[in-house]
Amino acid sequence: MSDKDPRHTHPQFIETLEKGIRVLEVFRSGQASIGLTELADSCGMTKSAAQRFTHTWCELGYLSKDERSRRYSLTHKALELGFLYLNADPLISRTLPALQLLRERCNLTVNLSVLSGHDIVYVMRIPGQNQTFAEMLPGRRMPAWCTSAGRVLLSALPDEAIRASLAGIEPTRYTPRTEVDGEALFETILRTRAQGYALTCEQVMIGQIGIAAPVRNVHFQTVAAVNITAQLSLWPTEQVEQKLVPLLMEVTQAITVG
Fold this sequence. Notes:
45% of the residues lie in helices and 21% in strands.
């Protein structure tokens, strides 16, 4: 972690705890298991330090160690933390009925996302047909700049914060149509703010189109985004704008989070 991060200079910040959490966050890469040396390198710590952290997490039940391969994996206890969040957060309980209604009316994948740094995190997912396993699971992170939900969430930030976020990432061209120019992305996000929704076409996956709209609280602040994804072969852009966008706007504008 950067020594310049102002959070780490606060007298109540516990650096050892941050390093321990970093060990669990290594699994964000999608690996099912990881060896000690690779884990230490990924976390930027010594092998002996990584060994102490992994032993502690194993004793607490959040990691398990395969004695033959000597590789570490997450356990169900990490999932239990996710359940506690989903069960307690009023955002989930307030929006779930609307997401279910939206899924029934469009028969497509519907997601609820929140902003996390330069990324979005899917906190609720109601899959459509023919979705992959990964696309069905909540907790997945995706870049904000190239996703419809991410652009909606970024558009709620002040202009200088949007520019700072775009300056803090290195855009990857996922498809030939992925927009990677910083100024063009900034203008697209401002346009999203003005029109009240975002539409992305083949920005992350070839043949995929996505739309998103904000979920707001009682103070009219954006707290999350709902997005719908579809296949271009079945939902051309014009049809998405004519049928899906009004449906999405109708449903999201009826949601108010306290």
